[in-house]
Amino acid sequence: MYNAAFDASGSLERAENTRLIVQISCVATLGGFLFGFDSGVINGTVDGLKQAFHSTAAGIGFEVASMLLGCAVGAFFAGRAADYQGRRTVLIAAAMLFLLSALGAGAAPGVVFFVAARLTGGFAVGAASVIAPAYIAEVAPARYRGRLATMQQVAIISGLFCAFLSNYLLARAAGASTAALWLGQDAWRWMFWMQVLPATLFLVSLTFIPESPRFLVMRKREAEARAVLVRLYGEEIARTKLGEIGSSLAQDRHRPRLSDLVDKATHRLRPIVWVGIGLAVLQQLVGINVVFYYGAVLWQAVGFSESDALLINVVSGALSIAACLVTVALVDRIGRKPLLWVGSLGMAVSLALVVWAFAQAHVDAAGKLALPPSAGTLALVAANVYVVFFNMSWGPVMWVMLGEMFPNQIRGSSLAVSGAAQWIANFAITISFPLLLVGIGLAPTYAIYAVAAALSTVFVLCCVKETRGRELEQM
């Protein structure tokens, strides 16, 4: 059923099928849910990996971070493949890889097999991370595109939350993550196998949504694009949008290629691509995935039990979802840039408080790190405030902007480069954390992330331009 609205003259102003657009966006965001689940599930399995594979600190760092190498590769090639095979086709391939990864990681008999399974999951996460928000941006109207694209981050955090909750419940049912659960298999293996359920739902759901109309126009399949646009917007607006999309591509209708990212006049990378890379990298340099990947280890390191540490992760996940919902309400009202700026400032302050609290840590009689009660409370509160600020700003808004800020002709290639940069930065932060923890300690490590958060404030003010309310053809 179409939702129609008329202006004062009685002419049709909009007639989009809002229900269909929302349904399509929800299917695409299942990729974000799996992105979050695959990223978060590792959090509760570290002890199991240590026991099963006899891993050292460096080994654990690589086992946790190995997926991120796959993410960088997946993001790069997915952006390019999406320009040749289509957005939906790439998402279907990602769903299949999610299934293989979940089955393989849980069944892994050794490190090599486990890393191969996590790399496979990384290809899927990388692809979903860049293509899902781009797909949503290409089907949604500008007036609420930000809200729908922000739902991608809600889905990511929901995936993280469900992974944390699943890990907690499975470990509690077994007695510990390393204890046997069903069919004689350890609980940490079942943590990976739980992902089979949402991966199957994602794969099936993708068969019911259409291809992106902007991709179809780019591939000169105008009749198919028009049919999709009619379903989305109605006959009159479909005709107008088809013309606008065609006009945006008319001056340069060759197949998209990486060289399009270079300005022909200056022979340098286009400034908009550098901004995309900056957004992608800074999102990781603030250290958010240290909390997501190593949260259980972190809280155990400062005196919490495994059960309490896993429960803290659940609380952080719930707060993250609430913060993302705030962004859903605000992103199309106040814009992207104000949310990024406020988030940067909030993260810098809360991380500084975390640094101060961790600086109070001492080694107890048992040889373990411990925090004084007041410092422990401060660390817990400040870390969760930091998570809230991230998830109401850089978490969702970075993906919103990457999906919409690039011109049609270079969107796939720009996403490929920016997405790869994001996952390389993620890998560097993740693999370095255990080494930094041993080498310089908790407080100095978090000080690095606090400085990055402060720098992100300057980057937003100086380099980021607002995209709220602009059609993709105006970018």
Roughly how much helix do the residues carry, as a percent range?
A: over 70%
Kindly report how far apart the N and C termini lie.
30 Å
Provide the β-strand percentage band.
Answer: under 5%
Q: What coarse outline follows from CA principal-axis ratios?
A: globular
The number of distinct structural domains comes to 2
Overview of the molecule:
The chain is mainly α. It folds into two domains: 16-209, Growth Hormone, Chain: A (Up-down Bundle), CATH 1.20.1250.20; 262-474, Growth Hormone, Chain: A. Helices cover 74% and strands 2% of the residues. The chain has 19 helices and four strands. The protein has helices spanning 18-40, 46-53, 57-84, 87-107, 111-139, 142-174, 187-193, 196-206, 213-218, 222-233, 235-250, 271-285, 288-301, 306-330, 336-358, 373-391, 394-404, 411-439, 442-463; strands spanning 5-6, 12-14, 362-363, 369-370. The longest helix has 33 residues, at 142-174. Mean pLDDT is 79; it is low at 1-13.
Question: What is this structure's SSE topology?
Answer:
Layout (H helix, E strand, L loop, with lengths): L4 E2 L5 E3 L3 H23 L5 H8 L3 H28 L2 H21 L3 H29 L2 H33 L12 H7 L2 H11 L6 H6 L3 H12 L1 H16 L20 H15 L2 H14 L4 H25 L5 H23 L3 E2 L5 E2 L2 H19 L2 H11 L6 H29 L2 H22 L12
Antiparallel strand pairs: 1-2, 3-4
Helix pairs in contact: 1-4, 1-5, 1-6, 1-8, 3-4, 3-5, 3-18, 4-5, 4-7, 4-8, 5-6, 5-17, 5-18, 6-7, 6-14, 6-17, 10-11, 12-17, 12-18, 12-19, 13-14, 14-16, 15-16, 15-17, 15-19
